[in-house]
């Protein structure tokens, strides 16, 4: 079970992921920072953040071997962040929560829909290495808490904040840790198993299901997820293929 007993809070660091992956910290250590100077996302992209208004979090887990659910861990982490965001919004602003929806976009994005507009709320980055016979995994979460960064790269969905200006009481991003730890523990993230229950919970919020996609696979329709968290795509010739190339880009048509 994760807890705040091993929680490091910082005002600034280069990267919360790098701090844990390169440091000598025990499994279960987590870190939050008010600002990152060298934050990164998938494929080495820079992750922009707004000082004091972004939730920047990483947690280190160690395993005796590569978890069977390793492919699905970004989605499992995303589900926990989604459920934490739902609970946090519902607890702080019950009325607003009924008008807000959240979705998971494969492989590692969390989207928010508010007043008919969909934006990118958060990104998940997993980094790992084998060290002294142990498999070390760091899960990083970058969430737009009360503002969005200005210097972002062009993307299909513009950044969106969980608590924009009309939500003045939600000022401290660190408070989100309580909701996130509860969600991670509820899904047993420290012993990840991509169960049928978790797969169903993800697919209930899965943004790509039924959508047309274009990518290295050609044109396809997303059928859902495989039993290990990869995409199931129906190609133009009617065949269904498993697609797990997170290093490649695809476009939603």
Question: Can you tag this structure with a few keywords?
Answer:
single chain, 253 residues, alpha+beta, BirA Bifunctional Protein, domain 2, seven-stranded mixed beta sheet, five-stranded antiparallel beta sheet, globular
What does this structure look like?
The chain has two domains: 4-204, Bira Bifunctional Protein, Domain 2 (BirA Bifunctional Protein, domain 2, 2-Layer Sandwich); 212-252, no CATH class. The protein is built from five helices and twelve strands. The chain has helices at residues 16-22, 73-92, 94-97, 176-186, 196-204, and strands at 7-10, 30-33, 54-63, 100-105, 109-114, 117-131, 134-144, 212-215, 218-225, 231-235, 240-243, 251-252. Strand 8 (212-215) and strand 9 (218-225) form a beta hairpin. Helix 2 crosses helix 4 (176-186). The longest helix has 20 residues, at 73-92.
List the helices and strands and how they pair.
Layout: E1 7-10, H1 16-22, E2 30-33, E3 54-63, H2 73-92, H3 94-97, E4 100-105, E5 109-114, E6 117-131, E7 134-144, H4 176-186, H5 196-204, E8 212-215, E9 218-225, E10 231-235, E11 240-243, E12 251-252
Parallel strand pairs: 1-2
Antiparallel strand pairs: 2-3, 3-7, 4-5, 5-6, 6-7, 8-9, 8-12, 9-10, 10-11
Helix pairs in contact: 2-4
InterPro entries: aa-tRNA-synth_II/BPL/LPL (IPR045864), Biotin_CoA_COase_ligase (IPR004408), BPL_LPL_catalytic (IPR004143)
Organism: Leptonema illini
Domain BPL/LPL catalytic: 1-192
């Amino acid at each position: 079970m994760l807890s705040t007993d091993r929680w490091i809070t910082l005002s600034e660091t280069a990267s919360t992921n790098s701090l844990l992956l390169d440091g000598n910290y025990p499994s279960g250590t987590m870190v939050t920072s008010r600002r990152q100077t060298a934050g990164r996302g998938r494929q080495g992209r820079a992750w922009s953040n707004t000082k004091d208004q972004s939730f920047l979090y990483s947690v280190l887990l160690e395993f005796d071997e590569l978890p069977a659910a390793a492919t699905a861990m970004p989605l499992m982490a995303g589900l926990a962040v989604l459920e934490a965001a739902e609970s946090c919004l519902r607890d702080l602003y019950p009325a607003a929560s009924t008008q807000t929806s959240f979705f998971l976009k494969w492989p590692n994005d969390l989207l928010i829909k508010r007043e008919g507009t969909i934006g990118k709320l958060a990104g998940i980055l997993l980094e790992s290495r084998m060290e002294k016979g142990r498999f070390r995994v760091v899960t990083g979460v970058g969430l737009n808490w009360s503002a969005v960064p200005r210097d972002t790269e062009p993307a299909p969905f513009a950044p969106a904040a969980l608590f924009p200006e009309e939500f003045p009481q939600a000022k401290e991003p660190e408070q989100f840790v309580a909701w996130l730890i509860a969600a991670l523990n509820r899904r047993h993230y420290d012993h990840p198993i991509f169960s049928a229950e978790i797969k169903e919970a993800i697919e209930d919020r899965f943004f790509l299901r039924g959508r047309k996609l274009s990518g290295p696979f050609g044109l396809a329709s997303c059928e859902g997820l495989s039993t290990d968290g990869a995409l199931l795509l129906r190609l133009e010739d009617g065949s269904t293929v498993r697609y797990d190339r997170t290093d490649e880009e695809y476009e939603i048509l």
